[in-house]
Amino acid sequence: MRVFLTGATGFIGSRIVPELLAAGHEVLGLTRSDAGARSLEAAGAQAHRGTLEDLDSLRAGAARADAVIHTAFDHDFAHFVANCEKDSRVIDALGSVLKGSTRPLIITSGTGMGSMQPGQMATEDVFNADNPNPRAASEKAGAILLDAGVNVSVVRLPQVHDPVKQGLISPFIEVSRTKGVVAYVGEGSNRWPGAHVLDVTKVYKLALDHARAGARYHAVAEEGVAVREIAQVVGEGLQLPVVSMTAEEAGAHFGWLALFVGMDLPASSAQTRKQLGWEPTGPGLIDDLKQMDYSTTASAH
User: By CB atoms within 10 Å of each CB, which of 11, 164, 185, 202 scores lowest?
Assistant: First the structure.
């Protein structure tokens, strides 16, 4: 089938492209630039010019496809709330074209949406619509489309990593580099789940294969890695001291990232593994952090 893929030149999307092509699908990849178009065509995909702000361009891409996978997200976390609201509008636009058909729409969210309270293991059968994380807007938009008969499913992401990027840990590293100290909150026993980027891409492909309306999948290989352990490895890599901070101190130290650094976000993927037959095989988060080259500044996530 022809799959319209947003975020097709991004960290995750660029790895989904070869996964889909290897399975015999055609890929129509969203890109805003000539360079992005060239990279997609070089990979064997077709380029579709457009942006997240141009909803007509998104509708046009979805109209040309048998399925849509939406991985694009504006990662300017200084405007996180606005970007979550924008994602809601994008999902609505993509889904509007798919109404009245069985064509699947796979959207992206975070594993935290599957937990009813802080520190509780997130599971696929839970959606906490009252979660204070603004990213809940993405799943709310998906739920509205689902009620309208659109074949929507959700892939929830943990910290997605390789030796170059590691989700929220990439800006964590850059804050540490700038401040000259690697910090965690309290005892640092709060946990972040993780998965290698190539394992994550397989969840999207399997979700497309199953195309089960209303399904939620957790692309989680490790249920929770303690932030203190992450900080210690980063401290070794940057050759900086590792310290504990209070939540109040962390607010001034981390800026926008303080919203996340103290969160305890364990997440299970037991249901996903059973339903999709998914078994992650990639390196763990700590292994990738140990392999990272800390002498260079990471590119924007």
Answer: 164
